[in-house]
Amino acid sequence: MIYNRPSMHTDFNKDGMNDFMCTFANSFFIRDGELHSHYIMRSNDSVFGYNNDYAWAKHVQAQLAKDLNVKVGKLIWTVSNIHVYERHFDQLEALEV
Prior knowledge:
Helix content is 31%, strand content 31%.
């Protein structure tokens, strides 16, 4: 699946928005009775975006595997830019890692 629409280049800033789609594409393939999924991300906010995107990807993969009567395989996550916004720096500092 390719996540894109031509109007994205004019819609990105409507109604106060300021972003393009983060997910470029994903593919599914079955190997040895397992459904594997590969997501290709343009960008990923590691505080909120990644957790939501990953949870949704796991849900979709599990449902599709069930529908196809195969096991859930690997979820491969490729990100060009994973980041933390400045507004979340205090949350990271509070972790005391």
